Amino acid sequence: MSSKSHELGLKENPNPNSINNVKKQTFDLGKGSEVVYIPRFLGFDESWKWFNYLNKEIPWTRPSIRVFGRSCIQPRDTCYVASEGLPELRYSGYQPHAYSWEDYPPLKQILAAVHEMLPGSNFNSLLLNRYKGGSDYVAWHADDEKLYGSTPEIASVSFGCDREFLLKRKPSKSLTVQATKAKDEEQPARKRVKKSDNDDQHSFTLKHGSLLVMRGYTQRDWLHSVPKRARADAVRINLTFRRVL
Ligand SMILES: O=C(O)CCC(=O)C(=O)O
Ligand SMILES: [Mn+2]
């Protein structure tokens, strides 16, 4: 305990890196979906150290995936790390090899920092992405695989080039039905269909050393993407920590 806080009778904060001690932005997306953004989760220099390690040491691959029944090369490099004994991950017809945390000790240090920031979290798997430049991207999707359960918390740490991260609300099934009905009945659809407004789209610039957390029903009700950006001319590495149930 520092002498000053002792004099004032204040208790030293037991967890200086807790979520209560950093600048964070919380976005209530409604209906039980929430996003938290912490721009300076990790220090700037420390983050470059992680970036250099990851860029060099991770066994990056660029696999073939299936999108709408067609085979294509995934538009970014990837790698998967998971604790032993978990059900295997499969997305877009691709089953990544699960590397061990023990093979990449710095990943365990970043995981520990994430756990410290998010009390109660207990991530056991990690999907890594490397965007080599502005033409690498991730298309609109939700991480709604069954193995994560119905309300997964996903913690996303970014290094390197700033990239835009977009969220948009999934089209509501009932509204789609109403829209079709309105068309069938030749009534003006705009009267029945909710207009898309600002509450249905959000954009974040994910900075070097930042942490973005998606939780609640964000994967059920929202899609996210990192679109192509011609001006993003440097490498970005992103780590998404998840819990396989
Ligand atoms: O790179 C990002 O910020 C997002 C990556 C992502 O959504 C994913 O790997 O599922
Ligand atoms: Mn995702």
TrEMBL record:
Pfam families linked: 2OG-FeII_Oxy_2
A GO MF term: cytosine C-5 DNA demethylase activity
Domain (Fe2OG dioxygenase): residue spans on this chain: 122-245
Gene Ontology biological process terms in this record: DNA alkylation repair
Residue numbers spanned by region Disordered: 1-21, 177-202
Binding-site positions, substrate: 68-70, 144
Gene3D superfamilies the record matches: Alpha-ketoglutarate-dependent dioxygenase AlkB-like
SUPFAM superfamilies in the cross-refs: Clavaminate synthase-like (SSF51197)
Annotated 2-oxoglutarate binding sites: 129, 131, 141, 224, 236, 240, 242
Composition bias type Basic and acidic residues, residue spans: 1-10, 181-202
Family of the protein in this entry: Belongs to the alkB family.
Identification of the protein by name: Fe2OG dioxygenase domain-containing protein
